[in-house]
């Protein structure tokens, strides 16, 4: 049963909000689903409290919704995300004239605990990539073209993720034409369809060359299109398959933490800062909308400094 069946104006507002997120803000399908789910839950709560139009949403109602979620034991990060969705919804309603005021403008939410992202040490990252290169060499001598092609692809995936710090969705979305070999750049389409150019290191470009020359033609098929990276059946590489490539590769290195593709992104950013890159440059490379998001990596490097000090200094 539709919880908004008795409040068609709220249902209409929800549908309009989803269109706004998808078509005007250009959010990813995942983000749209998350915001839409949170907004639907809020409006269902409002409907149960007697609200019938967006104008009925007020700060007290929003707070009661968050209090109920908190009583159910939701994590602070989840509460913060839901409060953000509520603020986005009420702001949109106010802009559209569906409400006289933005009820969520004063809505506070618990600040999420910011956990430091897991990263590889530089020598661990090197070991992961070296092992991938060795697997590609072994596969090439095994006289199994498909296995050799997949090994070349896996090496390219790992090198690209670490060299560029791109998100796994950005990686899987790359096309052949996005690589500028002459300038060693790759064109990346990030969140909100924003484009950026990211440099490629020599090892990453070498892995990419090997994949394009000797791996991709083996897997290429009718479903390949212009996709740069392919799955074993010839279609565009799936994000789940890319994640498995990373997990499998990192697990092969003794002592390395089990990381997903985002862990390689964190590692790349951390190692750039440790190597002397400035925060603004790292922000541009990662495609962060604000510098605040990038600043978490300064916490990572500071944590490493303390850890190294504690191990190495005789009077730590």
UniProtKB/TrEMBL annotation:
It holds the Pfam family Phage_int_SAM_1. Keywords: Cell cycle, Cell division, Chromosome partition, Cytoplasm, DNA integration, DNA recombination, DNA-binding. GO terms for molecular function: DNA binding; tyrosine-based site-specific recombinase activity. GO terms for biological process: cell division; chromosome segregation; DNA transposition. It is found in: Cytoplasm. Its main location: cytoplasm. The active site is at residues 167, 191, 262, 265, 288, 297. Residues 8-94 form the Core-binding (CB) domain. The keyword Kinase does not apply. Site-specific tyrosine recombinase, which acts by catalyzing the cutting and rejoining of the recombining DNA molecules. The XerC-XerD complex is essential to convert dimers of the bacterial chromosome into monomers to permit their segregation at cell division. It also contributes to the segregational stability of plasmids. This is Tyrosine recombinase XerC.
């Amino acid at each position: 049963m539709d919880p908004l069946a008795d409040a068609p104006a709220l249902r209409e507002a929800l549908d309009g909000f989803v269109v706004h997120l998808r078509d005007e803000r250009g959010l990813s399908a995942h983000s749209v689903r998350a915001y839409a789910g949170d907004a639907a839950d809020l409006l269902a709560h409002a409907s149960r409290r007697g609200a019938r139009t967006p104008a009925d949403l007020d700060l007290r109602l929003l707070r009661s919704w968050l209090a109920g979620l908190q009583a159910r034991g939701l994590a602070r990060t989840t509460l913060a995300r839901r409060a953000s969705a509520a603020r986005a919804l009420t702001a949109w309603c106010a802009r559209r004239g569906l409400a006289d005021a933005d009820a969520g403008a004063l809505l506070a939410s618990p600040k999420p605990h910011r956990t430091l992202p897991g990263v590889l040490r530089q020598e661990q990252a090197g070991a992961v990539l070296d092992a991938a290169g060795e697997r590609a060499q072994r596969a090439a001598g095994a006289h199994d073209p498909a296995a050799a092609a997949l090994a070349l692809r896996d090496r390219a995936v790992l090198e690209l993720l670490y060299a560029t710090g791109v998100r796994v969705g950005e990686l899987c979305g790359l096309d052949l034409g996005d690589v500028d070999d002459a300038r060693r750049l790759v064109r990346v389409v990030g969140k909100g369809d924003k484009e950026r150019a990211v440099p490629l290191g020599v090892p990453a470009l070498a892995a990419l060359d090997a994949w394009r020359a000797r791996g991709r033609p083996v897997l290429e098929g009718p479903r390949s299109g212009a996709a740069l990276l392919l799955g074993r059946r010839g279609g565009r590489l799936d994000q789940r398959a890319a994640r498995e490539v990373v997990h499998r590769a990192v697990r092969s290195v003794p002592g390395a933490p089990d990381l997903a593709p985002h862990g390689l992104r964190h590692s790349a950013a951390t190692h750039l800062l440790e190597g002397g890159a400035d925060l603004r440059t790292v922000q541009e490379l990662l495609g962060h909308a604000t510098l605040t998001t990038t600043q978490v990596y300064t916490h990572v490097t500071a944590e490493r400094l303390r850890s190294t000090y504690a191990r190495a200094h005789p009077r730590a």
